[in-house]
Amino acid sequence: MEKTAEVEKGPEFEEKPRDENGIIDGENADGEETQKKKKKKRKKKKGGEDGTSGDKADIDNMTEQLEEQKINETGDAEGAEGEDGEKKKKKKKKKKGGSAKQQTVPPSIPVIELYPDGNFPEGEIMEHPIAANDQTAKDRFTSEEKRALDRANTYLYEEVRLASEAHRQTRQYMQSIIKPGMTMIEICETLEGISRKTIGEKGLEAGLAFPTGCSLNHCAAHYTPNAGDPTVLQYDDVCKIDFGTHINGHIIDCAFTLTFNPKYDKLLEAVKAATNTGIKEAGIDARLGEIGSAIQEVMESYEVELDGKTYQVKSIRNLNGHSIGPYRIHAGKTVPIVKGGEQTKMEEMEFYAIETFGSTGRGVVHDDMETSHYMKNFEVGHVPLRLQRAKQLLNVINQNFGTLAFCRRWLDRLGESKYLMGLKNLCDVGILDPYPPLCDIKGCYTAQFEHTLLLRPTCKEILSRGDDY
Q: Choosing from 237, 355, 440, 461, which is the catalytic residue?
């Protein structure tokens, strides 16, 4: 049996005004509050109960009216209160924690605008290699001293991560569009145009670190087309795409190999595995010679069959990885890709490009073909110049490239002409160093993979690592 209790009626039980159908004002037929009434309650609460001023309440009311107007323009107000309302919340969260914009296709928005909070994507994090009975490397992750050093270098980390993200976005787009039938000039100029935009090119503060290498087949490195080069990419070509970005001289040097014929798959697999081995072995106190031995062992464990003939993949012994310094692509230390007696150790806060080259040829390269790459000698002091054209050209180089590598196409782009005599003079006196293409024997095939890593106090960060490789 249902029990009832009599209670004294208060103001809340007073008779409420009803319409001609007997329905209480502000409620629907089922006695539920309408959206209009709910909004009135919210307005009242904002304007009085929370103690805010009437002006603030008026502003809040106007804001809600504008929101209601937007909802009505998009369609159903009831749906907007539910699904659309949730979507709005999600969008706001995304703005706070991530990108304010979405990258275009092809990429055209500077990466710095995609991450307005300055938190750029971190590279792959790995522990430093641990020697037998040595816990030092493992303890780096938890050492408060090392963590404090990491925090002190946050600004540097964000700069190189920005350069890395610009590299990733550029190369991932280029991998999707490079096809046989494109000229090498078209490939390089398209890549460089996109890279200039993603890095937010700004003089020597941000830009390209060196010319785009697009070396083909037996040519392993340092080929980029000069003006008028008619070379066209073919289905059976093995093309190495090697380009760099930098922020304030902090360089990301990263490369990959493109093929279209699956017969080269094993060659690419060998070189990629060798690069990953070098990355794994690298770290604070790692000996460079031991890294080279590990790379060669993995590289030369592969064989590739081409047109009915089997070749052992060979490490190209006179090509190396290298340390990287500010505005200096080769900073003095080399990372061999064959075994040797080099006992030099890697050190904390050093940058390294771990790059490996595999070949079906002799495994040795030599200078060949027309030179396109040049770079100012980092150690050179003042050298008197007699040729006026050489003086003018050096001023252009200093202003636009400094000690970063450049190519003849980039001089053309700046409007320079009739500069070959000046280039030769600058090379002859030792101010510039020429870097001609490096080739193995004709008829063979070479491949390359490369990543830039930083030996942080707590760990090593493979800055240029991406979903592609």
A: 355
322 is catalytic: yes
pLDDT tens per residue across span 406-445: 999 999 999 999 999 999 999 999 999 999 999 999 999 9
- 285 as an active site residue: the answer is no
Give the C-alpha separation, 386 to 107, whole Å.
Answer: 45
What are the pLDDT digits (tens) for 32-86? 455 545 444 444 444 443 434 444 444 445 445 544 544 444 444 344 344 444 4
**Residue 268 · residue 447 · CB < 8 Å:** yes
How do 206-216 and 124-126 pair as beta strands?
unpaired
Q: Which of 322, 342, 373, 451 is catalytic?
A: 322
Annotation says 144 is catalytic: no
The confidence score (pLDDT) of residue 340 equals: 87
* 246 included as an active-site residue: no
Q: Which of 253, 342, 440, 461 is catalytic?
A: 253
Decide if 253 is catalytic: yes
Instruction: State the catalytic residue, choosing from 165, 237, 242, 440.
Output: 242
What are the residues whose beta carbons fall under 8 Å from the beta carbon of 346, sequence distance 6 or more?
282, 283, 284, 285, 286, 288, 333, 352, 455
Half-sphere exposure of 71 (CA within 13 A, CB side): 20
Catalytic residue among 330, 348, 350, 368: 330
Low-confidence ranges of the chain (pLDDT < 70): 1-100, 132-138
